[in-house]
Amino acid sequence: MNIRFTKRMQSIIDMVPPSVTVADIGADHALVSVNLIISGKAQKVFACDINEGPVKTASYNIERFNLSGKVFPVLSDGLEKVWDKAETVIIAGMGGELILSILRKSNLNLIKNFVLQPMNHANILRAGLVDLGLKIETESLVSDYGRVYCIIRAVHGITKYNDEELYVGPCILRQKGELFERHLNKIIRFEKSKEKDIINGKEHGKRAQRLEAILKEDTL
Questions:
Q1: Half-sphere exposure at residue 180, Cβ-oriented, CA atoms within 13 angstroms
Q2: Alpha-carbon Rg for the chain in angstroms
Q3: Bridging pattern class, strands 147-156 and 113-118
Q4: Tell me, what's the pLDDT at 139?
Q5: pLDDT tens, 97-140?
Q6: Rounded Cα distance, 1 and 34, in Å
Q7: For residue 161, is pLDDT > 80?
Q8: 10 Å Cβ neighbour count for 126?
Q9: What b/e string do you get for 204-218 counting C-beta neighbours within 10 Å, with b at 16 or more?
Q10: Contact present, 147 and 118 (Cβ < 8 Å)
Q11: What is the per-residue DSSP string for 113-130?
Q12: How far apart are CA 142 and CA 151, in angstroms?
């Protein structure tokens, strides 16, 4: 039985390293969880959601693909029920601040890999990862339905990032790639829209200028 994925969902799956156990937080329909088993990337997956509706949908899809005993639907507030059970955690399709709040209220010591896909405020998430003792191992960009998304994989480690790395992504700045210009222009537009703010307006304007200089260097 074939599963149809968006490019964003497939890129999240691609970012997951081979793992014994994965916890998919905010799993919704559990199709990512199901694919992790079918593709052989994981031996066991906990498909977690805070709401009963998505957990019921997850249960239906798990049974539909005959994966009971390998994918487990879990009603859980973030990592509350699975923090000590997963080698790799996926938290995708949420705001960067929400992802960070889920991580902050959890014990992360037993988790090795963190696959994160923020819908916004990626800079806040990256800064928070540093505070949590996590470092970004790799990042990727994907274009899906006209929007560019960033996917982050973090592991335990001490590091720090400058302002441009927090906003653009440390790995993305090094790798660049075909979506780099679109990604950077989106951030520049947002920073310029904040230039006239009474609070931090000048800071937004200066950041936009620095990012424009990076973009100009890349296009030379």
A1: 19
A2: 18
A3: antiparallel
A4: 98
A5: 999 999 999 999 999 999 999 999 999 999 999 999 999 999 99
A6: 11
A7: yes
A8: 27
A9: bbebbebbeebbeee
A10: no
A11: EEEEEESS-HHHHHHHHH
A12: 8
Cα-Cα-Cα-Cα dihedral sign, residues 4, 31, 71, 55: negative
130: its two tokens: 């540093």
| Structure-token pair, residue 15 | 């970012």
* DSSP secondary structure letters along 10-79: HHHHHHSPPEEEEEEET-TT-HHHHHHHHTTSEEEEEEEESSHHHHHHHHHHHHHTT-TTTEEEEE-STT
Kindly report the number of other CB atoms within 10 A of residue 118's CB atom.
24
Spatial distance between the Cα atoms of 76 and 114, rounded to a whole number of angstroms: 18
In the chain, % of residues over pLDDT 90: 94
Q: How confident is the model at residue 211 (pLDDT cuts 50, 70, 90)?
A: very high
Cα separation, 137 vs 178, whole angstroms: 20
